[in-house]
């Protein structure tokens, strides 16, 4: 196990980097190499979501000394919650096996959390590699219509990229972390709702930089998962008329033979009883913020 160096402010040992991975050994090793080289020297925690390509052995042999968690099956985004529970630092930075942090970003994040006690989650500016271009989500987050808060930095948002955020561990766990019902695909929205409802600030802070080097092409089933989880999130937290309208829209698309609509509908029906058991209405002021974001998106503006 490598020894974690403490910088002058101690930020490196107060932020754990948590990574979820599934059958992407080579990409994960490259990510661990980059994270190991950070000046903050953060502890690294890898959740192997049931890989069969030798990922676990590669992590154990990697010089970073990353801690390995092996739940034995693919937990999806819940692996991030598992990692947060095992972390021993007040802050947790989340990466995927194809994303990593800019040197100094974790130190900046820790300083912001120290300065703003109601800050729950920081969404970073994401730079897409290998070209170094801006991820389009940056402009969406920067243009959020939500009113600024005096008790947190940055721009308040109700969404983020799960592989490019730093969270206050206590706030993340208090909000329940990621919902297992959603698995993967737009699962960040529900967490943003729950953190906001609990009074925590969820903000976009462009001074934090995360790098992302995704595999080319669209992931199979991604669009279906996004639509499924958007509707499940409505049933979990939104007013009944909102959930019913969204459901009717999906049923209508299925009737018209729209690609993916039938699969999304089937996957929702299987999960709907569980969603109804876990349904919890958001405070009215949070719903007002959601409607503001949706209104801006409907007009073609940023989120």
Provide an overview of this structure:
Strands 1, 2, 3, 4, 5, 6, 7, 8, 9 and 10 form a 10-stranded mixed β-sheet that branches. The protein is built from 11 helices and 10 strands. Residues 1-12 have low confidence and may be disordered. The protein has helices at residues 25-36, 55-61, 78-86, 105-115, 137-142, 169-174, 188-197, 222-237, 240-255, 261-277, 284-298; strands at 15-21, 44-48, 67-69, 91-96, 99-101, 119-128, 133-134, 155-156, 165-168, 201-212. It is an alpha/beta fold and 303 residues long.
Helix/strand layout:
Layout: E1 15-21, H1 25-36, E2 44-48, H2 55-61, E3 67-69, H3 78-86, E4 91-96, E5 99-101, H4 105-115, E6 119-128, E7 133-134, H5 137-142, E8 155-156, E9 165-168, H6 169-174, H7 188-197, E10 201-212, H8 222-237, H9 240-255, H10 261-277, H11 284-298
Helix pairs in contact: 8-9, 8-10, 9-10
First-residue to last-residue Cα separation: 43 Å
Helix/strand structural class: alpha/beta
**Share of helical residues:** 40-55%
- Report the major sheet: 10 strands, mixed
Please give the oligomerization state of what you see. Answer: single chain
The poorly predicted ranges are 1-12
- What is the mean pLDDT? 94
Q: Give me the Rg, rounded.
A: 19 Å
Q: What portion of the residues fall into strands of 2 or more residues?
A: 15-25%
What's the total number of strands? 10
Number of helices: 11
The ordered H/E elements are: EHEHEHEEHEEHEEHHEHHHH
**Spatial shape:** globular
């Amino acid at each position: 196990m490598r020894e974690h160096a403490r910088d002058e402010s101690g930020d490196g040992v107060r932020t754990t980097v948590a990574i979820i991975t599934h059958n992407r050994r080579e990409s994960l090793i490259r990510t661990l190499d980059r994270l190991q080289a950070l000046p903050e020297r953060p502890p690294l925690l890898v959740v192997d979501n049931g890989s069969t390509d030798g990922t676990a052995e590669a992590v154990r042999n990697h010089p970073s000394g990353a801690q390995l968690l092996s739940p034995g099956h693919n937990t999806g985004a819940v692996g991030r919650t598992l990692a947060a529970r095992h972390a021993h630092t007040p802050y947790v930075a989340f990466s995927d096996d194809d994303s990593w942090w800019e040197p100094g970003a974790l130190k900046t994040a820790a300083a912001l959390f120290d300065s703003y006690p109601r800050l729950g989650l920081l969404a970073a500016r994401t730079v897409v590699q290998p070209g170094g271009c801006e991820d389009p989500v940056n402009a969406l987050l920067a243009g959020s219509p939500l009113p600024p808060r005096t008790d947190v930095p940055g721009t308040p948002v109700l969404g983020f990229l799960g592989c490019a955020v730093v969270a206050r561990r206590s706030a993340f766990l208090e909000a329940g972390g990621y919902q297992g019902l959603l698995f993967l695909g737009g699962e960040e929205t529900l967490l943003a709702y729950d953190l906001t409802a609990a009074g925590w600030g969820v903000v976009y802070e462009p001074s934090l930089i995360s790098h992302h080097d995704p595999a080319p092409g669209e992931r199979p089933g991604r669009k279906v998962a996004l639509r499924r989880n958007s509707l499940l999130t409505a049933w979990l937290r939104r007013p009944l008329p909102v959930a019913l309208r969204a459901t009717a829209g999906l049923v209508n698309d299925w009737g018209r033979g729209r690609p993916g609509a039938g699969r999304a509908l089937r996957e929702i029906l299987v999960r709907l009883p569980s969603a109804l058991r876990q349904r919890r209405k958001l405070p009215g002021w949070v719903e007002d913020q959601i409607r503001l974001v949706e209104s801006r998106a409907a007009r073609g503006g940023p989120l």
